[in-house]
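As a warm-up, study this chain.
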Amino acid sequence: MAITLNPISPVAFSVLGLDVRWYALAYVAAFVIGYWVFKRLMSGADSMIKLDKRQLDDLLTAVIIGVILGGRMGYVLFYDLGYFIAHPLEIFAVWHGGMSFHGGLIGVIAAVFWFAYKQRMNAWRILDIMAVVAPIGLFFGRIANFINREVMGRATDVPWAVVFDGDTTIPRHPSPLYEAMTEGVLLFIIMYCLYRYTGLRRHAGALGGIMGMGYAVFRMFCELYRAPDAQIGFLTSWGLTMGQLLSGVMFFAGLIIFVFAIRKK
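Now compare it with the structure written out below.
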């Protein structure tokens, strides 16, 4: 017996005629909580990097820009390039949905390297702390996906399958919740413990590499239950999805970064 839910409006509330969407609130919550956690980790006596208030604010600004630009351009390039070539103005309509984590990750890395270059700092030290913080954003983003009924799972008859009343009669895996728990909660616990209770933070880039590998593994697993994007479908006859392909590349990139970080004196 599937769980029947009433659809939740993507608009959380309106102010002076302006709609505030759950997706936007998810981003705000991710940045606010992530900023606080980053600051706490950096202020510890065992932190490998120190930033003052102005530098923290500049870093946050750079990361926000990197997430939005990278996430949107990643979606355009990886998931629906033909549509956006035909409708170029839709590239800027981010309120219609469509953000790629892999693109956002590239945007964040570029933003951090630019910030570190301007501040004459080691970018990998910054990225190692951000590797602990990133799952927070993933958690809130996947919850917003579920509210918006985006990237839902494949049809199933498991007892916890979800049907949105008036939307569909097909029970589906609540795959955004799977991703929220694995890529968000579980990955955060793993990264936090590695940061606090191991010496990996002394190897610049090691934690960033582990986060990349960890996310890739969880994402490839959850893709087994997530319906492929309608405009792409499966990439192969045996069921490879775009998310799995990009995550596979990400896994090996994280592995290379981790090996170089550990071997570097």
